[in-house]
Specification:
By secondary structure, the chain is α+β, with helices and mostly antiparallel strands. It has a single domain, classed as Aldehyde Dehydrogenase, Chain A, domain 1, CATH 3.40.605.10. The chain contains six helices and six strands. Helix 3 packs antiparallel against helix 6 and helix 4 runs parallel beside helix 5. The longest helix is centred in the middle third of the chain and has 30 residues.
């Protein structure tokens, strides 16, 4: 616990997020910690983008997810290598993680229209149904151990439903977080 507190204190003093290879302690990269003002700007821009995204039809959202599957398949080795460097995950396990993300996307591609369709039910009223509408931004705070899978399992269904997603990833895998952002933007 004391090590964690020390790490957090150093992070706040240095104002840097660092990616350090756990196998050899070599710093891979560092990034400035965003200021509170920068975070507020990101939140506002994401909320604005979500409003437009919520108006896009489901077929177009699913086309977006199809493009993510293509990106995952195209960049799987690169993503696996980054996980190996940033967190020490064996590359074979990283490849399986990326494959699992693609499979999750394919599941939602196949089932979203049915899952998100209105469900009519018998009641004493003339017409009763359950309908699905976007709720806004979904904020995810993710751990380091499955840097792609944990994000995809919350982000993909949220995006398909018309919501926006914000991610606060673990500070030691900022490279993975940036790669996810690059793939999704």
């Amino acid at each position: 616990m004391q090590d964690l507190i020390g790490f957090q204190n150093r992070l706040m003093i240095e104002k840097k997020l660092k990616s350090i290879n756990p196998k050899n302690n070599i710093k891979l990269c560092s990034w400035d910690v965003p200021s509170l003002n920068e975070i507020n700007i990101i939140i506002r821009k994401t909320a604005q983008a979500q409003m437009g995204w919520s108006e896009i039809d489901l077929v177009s959202r699913l086309d977006y997810v199809k493009s993510l599957v293509h990106i995952l398949n195209l960049r799987a080795k690169e993503m696996s290598a980054l996980m190996a460097d940033e967190m020490g995950k064996p590359k074979k396990q990283g490849m399986v993680e990326i494959s699992k993300c693609a499979t999750l996307c394919e599941y939602y591609l196949k089932n979203s229209e049915q899952v998100l369709s209105d469900k009519y039910t018998e009641t004493e009223f003339y017409e009763s149904f359950v309908t699905y509408r976007p709720i806004g931004l979904v904020f995810g705070i993710m751990p380091w151990n499955f840097p792609f899978w944990q994000v995809f399992r919350y982000a993909i269904p949220s995006l398909i439903a018309g919501n926006g997603v914000l991610l606060k990833h673990a500070s030691n895998i900022q490279g993975c977080a940036n790669m996810i952002n690059d793939c999704m933007v």
